[in-house]
Specification:
four-stranded mixed β-sheet, 188 residues, 6 helices, three-stranded mixed β-sheet, alpha/beta, elongated, 7 strands
Length: 188
């Protein structure tokens, strides 16, 4: 049986009652997710007390993992989180495309937001741009980099030398640096 508990300082914690557990244990996963496992004969209230008694150790473990895996992605998002990301993306990304289009002078067609997991964005032959809602998990400079990348595809439909020169120009000579930063992330 799975339950979710919101701790005031640690945030969301998944509590799992399972026959395999012999005692209460807490694990911190990549991305800072916290899971507490306990045997079925121990009440959830006792697990919450255990978490409270060990909150400093749990937070230290989370900081160690964050330092070791600075860009570790969180667990696969549930439907609610995807909808929240979708709303934020629809409110933010089209306006950001318009802003960067004006700034660069690169024009595109329609802008759509999708739950793409394998790529951050794409540009169609008709210059319509599609962006992944998971961009909302990136720092803003990388969101802008992805958008400018797609806007450059309105001029060059490939990754030719001309494309890279245009992209590098519009990101102030930082294409390689920003590409390296972007490779540390993934949509999920």
């Amino acid at each position: 049986m799975l339950q979710t508990f919101i701790h005031p300082s640690l945030g969301e914690i998944t509590i799992s009652s399972t026959r395999r557990a012999r005692r209460i244990s807490v694990s911190v996963r990549s991305g800072g997710r916290i899971r507490c496992s306990l045997p079925p004969w121990i009440p959830t209230k006792r697990a919450i007390e255990f978490i409270e008694e060990n909150k400093d150790k749990i937070e230290q473990a989370r900081q160690r993992i964050a330092a070791h895996y600075p860009n570790a992605e969180r667990q696969e998002p549930d439907r609610r989180e995807i909808e929240q990301l979708r709303q934020r993306a629809k409110n933010f990304l089209p306006a950001k495309v318009e802003e960067l289009s004006r700034k660069t002078g690169l024009r595109c067609g329609k802008v759509s937001v999708r739950a793409a997991r394998s790529r951050w964005g794409s540009c169609s032959t008709r210059n319509d741009i599609s962006l992944s809602l998971f961009l909302m998990r990136l720092p803003e400079e990388l969101i802008e980099f992805v958008i400018i990348h797609e806007l450059c595809h309105t001029i060059h439909k490939n990754h030719s030398e001309k494309f890279h020169r245009l992209l590098d120009h519009h990101v102030g000579g930082r294409e390689k640096e920003l590409n390296a930063k972007l490779r540390k992330y993934r949509a999920l």
